[in-house]
Every structure is written in structure tokens, then in C-alpha cells.
Amino acid sequence: MNTTAYFDALYQQDDPFEYRTRWYEARKRALTLASLPRDHYLRGWELGCSNGVLTAALAPRCAQLLATDLSEQAVSAARLALAAHAHVRVERAEHPRQWPDGTFDLIVFSELGYYLDPPTMQAMAARLAASLDAQGVLIACHWRPAFAEARCTAEFVHAQLDALLPRAFSWGDADMLLQGWSRDTRSVAEHEGLR
Ligand SMILES: C[S@@+](CC[C@H](N)C(=O)[O-])C[C@H]1O[C@@H](n2cnc3c(N)ncnc32)[C@H](O)[C@@H]1O
What architecture is domain 3-191? Predict the structure, then answer.
């Protein structure tokens, strides 16, 4: 089964990853949001937005937010979830083959990279780095244990980004790896004038 068919079958269920009900997912979302170095972003992008649960949590932090997913069903569910947010646009796209124009000051690459084979993940990292603006932050969060559909590991995904961009922060446990990269190497405290 190819990736699109796999996700189309999965999205016959309303919330296949249990984003709305699982404490694991709620906690991970809270960690992701807390890790963002800035309070507010001008142009954000979440790749692989699924049914829009993380997108809805990111929406108040962004003046404009693009959310993309390869699954038509996921895009429909995310559009419904984000209907009240006029500044959020949800588009169907398969990355890295399809790519949005311009640059972003926030890119959220969460639980997607391991679905790509290693050369495609490498190409993805290069395109992500090129789409990040000079002050922007790219966040990646990935499940660490092996699973049947994974074509590479969380460590491999994050290493491709590490090779291209300065690391801003890192947090991990046995389940997940949450890291961020930015060309703006000022800390949060430096940015706030605290030091
Ligand atoms: C596990 S969900 C992640 C949802 C959300 N980003 C989060 O972390 O809560 C992965 C999503 O990525 C989408 N996806 C997988 N490969 C993709 C690709 N190459 N391009 C765009 N979307 C993709 C799937 O359809 C699925 O909805």
C-alpha cells in the first residue's frame, strides 16, 4: 500500500491517532507549544496537519498559518476544525514533491519525517531549511520506538536537520524527540533583553 492509500484508509476513522482523547498526545502538544521560543509568529506552517488538533493549538500563536496534509480526508477534517480561524489555510499537498512558496518564521514538522525513505527525508530537510527565514524556528517532534510503517528513525530525521541548521533546543524521553533549529542563535532570555 502506498503512503496516500495508507493514510486514506486510516482517516476512515474520525481521530485515528486519538489526538482529541489521549493524555500522551495532549502532553506532547503542550510540550511542543511550550518549546516555541517566541510568543508570536508572522507566517507559520504545519506539515502533515492530520485532523487539525495541533493546528488549532498553533493558530493563536500565528498571524497567518498554513496547514498541509497529503490525505484529502485529513484536509477536510482540519478545514472543519479550523473553520472559525480565518487566518488559517489548509491545503492538500504531498511533501517534498509539492511545496509552498515563500519563507516561514515558524515551521512545525511533527510526526511525519519517519514516513519518508532516507533519501526523500534528506531532500525534505534541505527544502525545510531553505523555507525557514533568518529569524525563524523549525520544530520537529517524532516518536522514537520502531513501528511497521516507519521508513527511517526519529534520530535519522532529526540528524538531517542538525546537519543543515543550528540547534536551538533539545528535549527527549524514551518515547519522543522534540528539537528546534534556528539561524537566529539568540536565546529566549537574550531576545527578551534579560541578558
Ligand atoms: C501522525 S500525523 C501528524 C499530525 C500532527 N502533525 C501532529 O504531530 O500532531 C502525520 C500526518 O502526516 C501526513 N503525511 C504523511 N506523509 C506526508 C507527506 N509526504 N506530505 C504531506 N503530508 C504527509 C499524514 O497524512 C498524516 O495526517
Answer: 3-Layer(aba) Sandwich (3.40)
